[in-house]
Amino acid sequence: MSLTENLTKAPETASAAIDKRARKYNVGGVLLDRPFKARRLGHFGFNCYHFDEALVFYRDFLGYRVTDNLDFAKVIPKPGLFDGIQSVGTFMTHGTDHHSFVLFPRAATDRIGGSAGGHEPNDQVTTNQITWQVGSLDEVVNGIDWFSKVGVDPGRVGRDVPGSNWHSYPSDLEGHTNEIYYGIEQIGWNLRSKPPAVIVRGFHEKPDLPQMCEYQELELFRADGVDLNGGHEHVEKGPFEYEVGGVLLARPFKVIKVGPVRLFIKDMEQAVDFYTKVLGLRITEEVTYNGHRCVFLRCNTEHHSLGLYPTALRDELGLSAHSTCFSFGNQVGSYTQLRNAVTYLESKGVKIKKLPPELFPGIDYSAFAVDPDGHLIQLYYYMEQVGWNGAVRSTTDRRRVDNDDWPEVVSAMEDSYDGETLLGPLG
Question: Looking at the domain assignment, is residue 282 inside a domain?
Answer without folding.
Answer: yes
